[in-house]
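To start, one record:
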Amino acid sequence: MEFSSDSSLIQVTVDEFGIAMLKINRPEKRNALSQKTIDSIISALAMVERDGKIRVAVLAGSRTAGPFSAGADLGELQHLSTSEAYRTGYLKDLSDAVAAMRKPIIASVAGFALGGGFELAMMCDIIYAADDCKFGLPELTVGTIPGAGGTQRLTRVVGKQKAMHMILTSSTMTGKELEQLGLIAQAFPLNELYGATVAAARKIALRSMPVIQLAKQAVLSADEMSLEAGLKIERSLYYGSFALQDRTEGMVAFVEKRQPVFKDQ
């Protein structure tokens, strides 16, 4: 399957396991996020969410060695005024589209992810990266600040000190370093990244889709509320899973020492 919303800026393929590979394809601009590229990502995500055969999405750059994305297209951004940014909700459309995804979305990052590219990766549910990949938020070097969640998501994971250092000095960190800080799920040698990402996506794809969505909702609630409120949400979702046929199948299969056959019910 191939999908494109604008001149193949996003290449989409879906395998037999229901894994959609979404590849940002603007290598001549280091996969910079022009508005057309952002619109293409949003359209691709909407298609993934609608398609009942797709179970997991993987977002990557179109080339194995990277980059993932250099961030905002400065050729466009330099002409954006404060009033126009407010009027259009610049970058909010992308953040909202990722947040609306009920299906899991994995970022597979090679080469580098800078500025908005790093922020896009942090919007995803899981990040896998090459161990030598460079991550950074260099917006201060061009006279602005991160504006797509970078100051918030980075700080919540790595803490104030590391976040301040990275942002104020425009320093980069490697995939391996960010794995140690918990921002990246796993870092791999570049030649293993694609295979490891697909293997993880296939593991997820074998699970019950309603249960995957319950688990994702529960984990995301931890970022948005107090522990007490989060525990109430988790408990409610947990009890709700008891009504699923897949919950019965999973437990019966465990007792019978066989692999479960989930039907997403």
In short: The chain has a mean pLDDT of 92.
